[in-house]
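Hey, I'm writing a tutorial for new members on how sequence and structure tokens pair up, and I'd like a real worked example in the thread rather than a made-up one. If someone can provide the structure for the chain below, I'll link this post from the tutorial.
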Amino acid sequence: MTVRFDEMELFKDPAEEPATARANATREEPAPKAATAHELAPAPRWRRSLAFATDASLFLALALAMSPLLNLRVDVTETVRAEWPALLAFVGFITLLSFHYFVVSWAIWGRTVGGSIFDTRVTLVDGSPIDFRNATLRWVWMLVSVATCGLGFVAGILPGGRSLADRMSNSRSLV
């Protein structure tokens, strides 16, 4: 039985729990079945791209919403020279927030908000759930791909459809 984060039911008191749920809880769960080829189907590139664009748009919206906190000037060099501590804190906050958003989402649920919308999930190559270490590696190489203007995502065009972040973290996106 798999429980998705958006389908989980929580009960405060076992007495409030439905009788069928209590009866099912006492039964022994069968051994997990082996993953079939259909369950391990790679996510199409367009789904992965739209899921990432959705996640990136969340951070762009957050950055734009927080930009009035910065004292921006007309000249960019003057702004950097005068406001470098605030700019550094701003970039650090967005980076730290993205780490928690992506890594924790991948490690706990196997997907982000964009992945939920476009029905993609992140697993290890063998189909098992991604762990915290590999999710962190995936996040680091995703940032490297973004910093190089998408060069790491170009690897997704190669056979296998795995980006640089996928290859370096031993992960892949599935439907």
